[in-house]
Structure formats: structure tokens, C-alpha cells
Amino acid sequence: MNGQGKDYYRTLGVPENADNAAIRKAYRKLAKQFHPDANQGDPAAAERFKEVGEAYGVLSNEEKRKQYDRMRKLGAFGFPGAGGSRPGRRRPPEAGSRPGAGGATEDFSFEDLGGLGGLGDLFSTLFDRGSRRAAGGAGTREGPTPGSDIEVQAEISFETSVAGGKIGLQIPITDTCATCTGSGAAPGSALERCDECRGSGTVSFGQGGFAVNRPCPACMGRGRVPEKPCPSCQGSGSVRQVRKLQVTVPPGVETGSRLRLAGQGERGAAGGAPGDVILVFQVKPHRFFRREGLDIHVTVPLNLAQATLGSRVRVRTVGGKQVVLRIPPGTQGGTRFRIRDQGVKKGDRTGNQYVEVTVNVPEDLNDEAREAMETFARVSNLRH
Questions:
Q1: What is the mean pLDDT of the chain?
Q2: Per-residue CA distances from 93 to 100, 102, 106, 211 (Å)
Q3: Does pLDDT of 328 surpass 80?
């Protein structure tokens, strides 16, 4: 990311005219590449993962994307489009000003562009705080900000996907440091005013013809720094740790099904509510059963005698029952039999189980078996 703003298109590596499918594809690729599970102990990858999620959250939402594109065109992020001047409404030049010198502009606020939820708060924090402090004389602290959601791939067995059950998960997450309770100060030490921002929580950077205020990197926007940093979090107030969860999987989920765990995501800022964990299920394949919707399909082999003369075979259902299936004489390979109501149950609907038979023809016969087959062939020819 450049120091002047966030280019979400560059973050995802897509052009500005990319459609939703391209944005979603790019996000999935990058989220998988930088997911904390695949980059344990790599803070750069964790930060990149957050950036990718933030970019996708904006560009995948039609309304937020429109607002973001409008602000880019205004040059609010340091990208071309504003002609190097501060966006805003012109006001009449003051008395004595020289013609052609350019009249002053009114303060511009991103609130003028409509509500953007948490994104609007972010833009207001980065760009509007300076004008508000100048008007009010004191820095304005940010209000509570909700934490980010975390999307996690959860691999489950075929049986669990059908019947439901409990699974254990370990989710890397940023949480409040237990040693300093989030203050960043070592136990017994105090918090001091940040010298970098003089306690305002923001620092000013020049951009075009106006100043841009951003959260102070020294105190991370808090306005205060610990006299002695906490040894557990090195003064950040947060630690990266693994959260262990026991999750109840509802019956009938399949690959791609999503489950939201409210309040289990990243912690919020300034007392904001935590985000959610969104589980995306990935069902392991089964060696015997396969699923199509609510129906279960299996394949059962028959020998030549069973298919020719008829037989009874035991078939296991996905629910664990043993069902005796009658095979009529002369059954051909590829024939399907239906066992009613032995498929997947989901709500008030239940699928069926389908049994497809294959006929195994022996490659080698002993003398006795060959003689019996030859006799069978002669009798069949006489009948025809």
C-alpha cells in the first residue's frame, strides 16, 4: 500500500472495471495465500490478510464500491483525479485577494458522500479529523469501532456433514493482552502523553494543497504511550494467539455451507463489539457414499451368479442401518435400486439412497467352473 492512501484495486490485483466474479476470485486466491493458518508467526502475512479482507469488503459491496470510486476520483487517496487541490466547495474570495490566485475552499468531509458504515468512520478518521480539531481546538477520539470478521475453512467428515455433530477448531486471532488489559503498559507503570502527536492521536502529512491527518504511528492513534512497555505485547496492547472453539455442526451441511459464530472474531476498538467468525465447510470425500443434494449414492458389486440367478445383498445406509436389498434374476450392470428415506435429513425433507450395481465377470476360471459355464451357455443357446 502506498503511504498516501489505500488502493483496494491494487490490493486485490484487479482493474478498476473488474466485475464481481473477478473480485471474488482474486480475493479467494489472496486470502488462501496469506491466511494466518498457512503463515504461522508471520506478522507481514497477517497484515496482508487483513488488507485483502478490507479491500474485498468494500469492492464486493455495490454501494460501498460506488462511494469508494467517487472518493478516488476526488483525489482523496492521493490518486490522480483531484488536480492536486483539496476537494471541496468553493467559497467567495476574501476581500483583498488577488484574482486568479484561487479562492479558499470550504472544509470537505466524507460525511457529505453518504454513510459507509465502518468504512466511512475510517475515512473520516484519516482525512476529516484535522479540520474538526482545528475548528474545535482539541483532538477528537474515535468512537467504538466493531472488530473484523474472520473467515475460516472447516474440514469435516462426510458423516458429520450428514448427521451433524461437534468439532474442535483452533483459530488464530488478535486479542486483548491479558497482562496489561490492553493498555500497552507494563504492570505498575503509567501512560504518558505521546510526544510525536502531542496527545492528539494524529499526525499531519502534506498532500497537494492541504494537510491529511492520519493516526499517529507512535501511539497507534491513542494519544498516550506506556512509560514502560508491557513485556507480553511490547506495548501494542494486543497479542496474537490461538482461540480454541467447540462448534456444533448442524445436520445436512455440504461443501460451501457457511456458519456464523457471533462475537468470536477480532476484537473491536475503543469498546466496539467484536467481529464474527464465519465458518466455510469443506466436506471430506467418503470411500463408499457420495452425495447429490439430499440423496446418497453408493455402488455395490455383484458376481455373475448373483446377477444371473438373483440374490439378496446387505447394503449399509448413511444413517448406519443395514438394509437387505433383493436383486432379481437377470439384473444388468448399471441397474439402480432406491431405498426410500435413507438419504440426508435437512429440516422437514429427507432424501433417498440409491444403489447402483456393477457385475464382475471373472477373468480366470478353474476347470469345474469353466465346464459349468459351458453347460450354461449350451442350454441358453438351445432355448433361443
A1: 78
A2: 10, 8, 11, 20
A3: yes
In CATH, what number does 290-383 get?
2.60.260.20
| CA-closest candidate to residue 120, choices 196, 155, 177, 68 | 68
Do the domains 290-383 and 147-178+237-284 match in fold?
Answer: yes
Domain spans in the chain, listed from the N-terminal domain onward? 147-178+237-284, 290-383
Of the options 2.40.50.140, 2.40.30.170, 3.10.150.10, 2.60.260.20, the CATH number for the domain spanning 147-178+237-284: 2.60.260.20
What pTM does this model have? Answer: 0.55
Q: Which residues pair with 312 in a beta bridge?
A: 326
Residues facing 151 on adjacent strands: 278
Backbone torsions φ then ψ of 199, nearest 5 degrees: 85, 0
Question: Which of 55-64, 201-210, 328-337 has the lowest average pLDDT?
Answer: 201-210
Query: For residues 286 and 189, what is the distance between their CA atoms, to the nearest angstrom?
Result: 58
For the cut 60, the answer to whether the pLDDT of residue 191 exceeds it is: yes
Rounded Cα distance between 69 and 49, Å, is 22
Please say whether the beta carbons of 342 and 352 come within 8 A: yes
Find all residues with CB under 8 Å of 241, minimum gap 6, and list them. 172, 173, 175
- The answer on pLDDT for 184 being more than 80 is yes
- Please give the single-letter amino acid code of residue 227: E
